[in-house]
Amino acid sequence: MNEKQLYNEGLKQERSGKLDAAVKLYIKSIQINPSFRPALMNLGAIYGKLRRPSQSIQYYEAALKLQADEAVHFNLGSEYYQSKKYEVAAAHLIACLKINPRFLRAHILLAYVYEARTLPEKAEVYFRNALKIKAESRIAVLGLLLNLSQRQKYSEALAVCNGFLQKVPEDETIQGLRAGLLMETGDYQASAEELQRLSRESSGYRSFGDHIGKARESSEEETRAFFDGVRDRIQDRSRSLRSRIEERKRAREAGKKLDTAELKDDARDMMDLSLMYLFSGESEKAMQFLVQARKLKDRSG
Description:
By secondary structure, the protein is an all-alpha fold. The chain has helices spanning about 5-15, 20-30, 35-50, 55-65, 70-80, 85-100, 105-115, 120-135, 140-150, 155-165, 170-185, 190-200, 205, 210-215, 220-255, 260-280, 285-300. The chain has 17 helices and no strands.
């Protein structure tokens, strides 16, 4: 068989889920013709699915030498992001957008690259670019809401929620996040009422945990980046809260009086955790932290 025949047979194997067999056929194809780009691209894609970025990059880089297009730059950006080589990832994603400025996924993933590089203002630009391209993109709006809320720009985030819900009013996920943002802006009563209403009346919202579970299985790098970011933020904020509570416990045992300013810090962390749990789809935990935050707010005056 020549390289095209081997490639076509590999394609059949890949489509039937037999990735190992497909890889062997694609490799035979490029052994015959090292410049056979379709096989190189498919090898890069398979190793990407297998979460083996170094091998994926090897084949995508070989494909890039033969031809530069938006697909190979985006795929390299994804794999370098996975490898935590963020500057290289950004360079490829920018190159992708120069070829196709309306490549939605490239805007979103580039935003997460900037998040990883601790450049939230730049990340915000690309999340907003994505929403200009596709106003109803849930992953873009979720990324932007997470970005703004972590910078405590709750009023701006609330405006984003409201704008999105004008276009997609039935999106119960964003309705729930809107309730969390109302809490962050100090409207506890409206926040609690909205979350209770959603939990009581909306079958879609009650099953949101299942929806999130399915979304986490997405093969799209930008979707994985979103959920990884939420998980990391929950872990960081939880550690901070636990550490402060332990310190205060030791201080009380030593006879130190309660500091209301510290209670306000705890309430702040609990509100932030409530919002993060909403982002992760765990509405029950979100409600628990909301109730605790409200109690601490009342105690601290």
